[in-house]
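Example 252, ligand FE3-S4 cluster.
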Amino acid sequence: MAEKTHEAVFLIFRGTPENGEYKEYRIQVVDGMVVLDAMMEIQAKFVSDLGIRCNCGAGKCGSCSAEINGVPRLMCKTRLSDLPEGQPVKVGPLKSFPGIKDLVTDVSWNYEVNKTMTPFTPHQDTEWRMQQFEVDRIQEHRKCIECFLCQDTCHVIREHDKKKEYCGPRFLVRLASLAMHPLDAADRMAFIKEKAGIGLCNVTHCCSDVCPEKIRITDNAIIPLKERIADRYYDPVLTLIRRIFGKRKSNI
Ligand code: SF4
Ligand code: F3S
Ligand code: FES
């Protein structure tokens, strides 16, 4: 049976931030196509130099992040059938990072932020054993594919450009996974409070809404970190317990 096709209109950002504009392309699309399929087809048919970043095509490499009808999403996970029917599909680059060309942005700031964080630092004097609940809560954080959609959508970065003062939700997820690891010995609390700028997050949940891995960024990473900061800096009893028993026993 022949596939059912219909014409769809795409408005795609072409050029650089200084000299770019949205251009219109029309192609026949079939059921099941995602936005990335359409970009590849337009590239193959009309504009061989269309700048796109992609790799896996399966929602796992985090490289095809773009703004689709103004919403940060993965192109390979956005079905055309889930977008408003009969309207042009607008595809642009992530707004929070410098544009390079067309849909490709320079996200290297994120890798620089990552380097400033003390990596996993195992205890030298403890048995390597974890409770199942400890494994489960870290596992959620480790599903991150570094698509940076959460970074793109967070207003602290997007509207206020606080890249110098704030690490953004993706890296609060990383810091939470380290803080909740019972075998980790490093103390990053001062870093989280001062350098990572957790106080700038005002818990809007927008980051959680766009995460393709459905990580509950705000509820399961940022709020627990904020609570730990409050315990550390404003609760002298808990600070004393932590000093006496260490991170594993006190779990705070
Ligand atoms: Fe992407 Fe979610 Fe990781 Fe943010 S936390 S970078 S949205 S996978
Ligand atoms: Fe930004 Fe998420 Fe906080 S969108 S303000 S990091 S809850
Ligand atoms: Fe890998 Fe989209 S191409 S996540």
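Summary: The beta strands are 5-15, 20-30, 65-68, 71-74, 89-92, 99-101, 104-105.
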